[in-house]
Write a structure and sequence with these properties.
The chain is an all-alpha fold. The protein is elongated and about 60 Å long.
């Protein structure tokens, strides 16, 4: 129990992360399960609450789209079903497009390069952030018309 408390003193961890770290330190799985059960009783381990909070932070602070949020949460050892439910509930298609547009405005404050290459660059940037293809197209579609049409100088 002391090892788990020291882990949680640094930052919030998912139950899967706690279990994995205890296993690396040589604790048997049965003992790790008992520790996690006790942490739940004390309110120190709450995967659904932590998953929702992290998804919100990844979206609002880091500018991640749903796919990257899901990938990041799975890397933090949350159960797949919980991750899928959290991502589905945390971001509607309209919110995804609004978030993608906000991320574009922040990234390209001084404007995009002219022409189709500017629109392609913006699309690639958003796709790399985990936004869906539809949200990428709609967010890029909100850019100035000369960029969308690939106006040549």
């Amino acid at each position: 129990m002391d090892a788990a408390m020291r882990m949680l003193a640094r930052r919030s961890l998912s139950e899967g992360e706690i279990r994995g770290r205890l296993a690396k330190r040589g604790f048997p799985d049965s003992q790790a399960s008992e520790v996690i059960h006790r942490l739940r009783e004390l309110g120190l381990a709450n995967d659904p609450e932590l998953c929702v909070r992290l998804a919100r932070d990844y979206r609002e602070m880091r500018g991640y789209g749903p796919a990257k949020i899901a990938w990041t949460l799975r890397r933090r050892c949350f159960p797949r079903e919980l991750v899928e439910e959290t991502v589905r509930e945390s971001c509607s298609p309209e919110e995804e497009v609004a978030a993608a547009s906000a991320v574009l405005r922040k990234k390209f404050r001084s404007g995009l390069p002219q022409g189709r290459e500017g629109a392609a660059r913006a699309y690639r940037f958003l796709a790399g952030r985990g936004f869906s293809p539809g949200a990428c197209r709609r967010a890029v579609g909100r850019l100035p018309k000369d960029i969308r049409e690939g106006e040549e100088e």
